[in-house]
Amino acid sequence: MEPNYRKIIHVDMDAFFASVEQRDHPALRGKPIAVGHAGSRGVVATASYEARKFGVHSAMPSSQAREKCPELIFVHSNMQHYREVSEQIRAIFERYTDLIEPISIDEAFLDVTDNKVGAHFGVDIAKAIKRDIKAELELTASAGVSYNKFLAKIASDYRKPDGLCVVHPDRALAFIDRLPIEAFWGVGPATAKKMHAMGIHTAPQLRSQSLAFLTEHFGKAGLIYYNFSRGIDNRPVTPFRERKSVGCEETFRHDIRGADIDKALVEVANELSARLARKAFLGKRLTLKVRFPDFTTLTRSVSQNRYLNHPTVILPLARELLAGVVLPAAGIRLLGLSVSKTELEIKEEALTRQLRLFEMDESTEEI
């Protein structure tokens, strides 16, 4: 008897912020643009495909991006507008399924195993979604279709931009075996370097390792790598997941002190700003995390009455928090920043959701 495989789609908008700007401003079409702040301490939130040809990418310092592409045009981000467009995309998804798991403002997983249009194949729904987005919003999306989230996510990146890739269950291992280990979900630069040192560069080499070996060297993630290399991912598509904070931190190879600390703080603030933009997260509370050479860790936080979503806002506050920390002569080994929602924000958003549900109920009764 043939197994009942799930039908999972991962939809990822192509250079979303930049594409929206090019759509709304015809003079920018076909030109290399970067959404972000052009200042000396600015950072690129996203870049158009014309700019990516020069090596410009998200989270890159604006000054470096300008060096790579002297003709680069910087456009200020408009997060409220991007959110509105994201909601329009979400409305298209909802024509086909209610099992939608947003990953960020411009990507989501959809479980279309049981769908609203009675389609038998997930690829047919992926084609319809791509067609609707292009016809109605004048934007392009890439989609990956498979029987689990891991493979659908990789497949959506496979033929970008405006791509569509299907990974059938009987071809999953062959597809996985063509990938470098860096393509695996959860394998960042540090993990990839560690795997390379062990002689693991490809999926077959990863699959040849025992579960005991992988958990010994990678902890709980070892089981994930073990399963992924075999095409196994049983995580369900979770319709609602509220994010409470976004952060980033850096552990230094050698303890740093003096001017190097401020330099690191600038880099962490820029990276945090890029992550906030990518995830379309808004918060008014900033937290600084510092770890000393003896592994003592402390945090300092401050709340504002405005959203903290740009280096020019985040960095001065981070410096104020750091100034209140007595730093040892030996320096520090870790520095981190995060933006979170205040208790008031959480309560206000919960109230807004309740009001929206009430309005939906009222409109339903009137029909």
Name the helix and strand elements from N-terminus to C-terminus, one letter apiece: EHEEHHEHEEHEHEHHHHHEHEEHEH
Rg (CA only): 22 Å
Q: What's the number of extended β-strand segments? A: 12
**Can you give the mean pLDDT?**
88
Q: Give the biggest beta sheet.
A: 5 strands, mixed
Oligomer: single chain
Summarize the structure in words.
The protein is of the alpha+beta class and 367 residues long. It contains 14 helices and twelve strands. It has helices at 16-24, 49-52, 62-68, 79-93, 122-137, 149-158, 172-176, 189-197, 203-207, 211-218, 221-228, 259-278, 311-323, 343-366, and strands at residues 8-13, 33-36, 44-47, 73-75, 100-104, 107-111, 141-146, 164-166, 245-256, 285-291, 297-303, 332-340. The strands form three sheets. A five-stranded mixed beta sheet has the order 5-6-1-7-8. Strand 5 and strand 6 form a beta hairpin. Helix 4 (79-93) packs across helix 5 (122-137) and helix 12 (259-278) crosses helix 13 (311-323). It starts with 7 loop residues before the first strand and ends with a helix. Residues 353-367 have low confidence and may be disordered.
Itemize the secondary structure elements and their pairings:
Elements: E1 8-13, H1 16-24, E2 33-36, E3 44-47, H2 49-52, H3 62-68, E4 73-75, H4 79-93, E5 100-104, E6 107-111, H5 122-137, E7 141-146, H6 149-158, E8 164-166, H7 172-176, H8 189-197, H9 203-207, H10 211-218, H11 221-228, E9 245-256, H12 259-278, E10 285-291, E11 297-303, H13 311-323, E12 332-340, H14 343-366
Parallel strand pairs: 2-4, 7-8
Antiparallel strand pairs: 1-6, 1-7, 2-3, 5-6, 9-12, 10-11, 10-12
Helix pairs in contact: 4-5, 10-11, 12-13
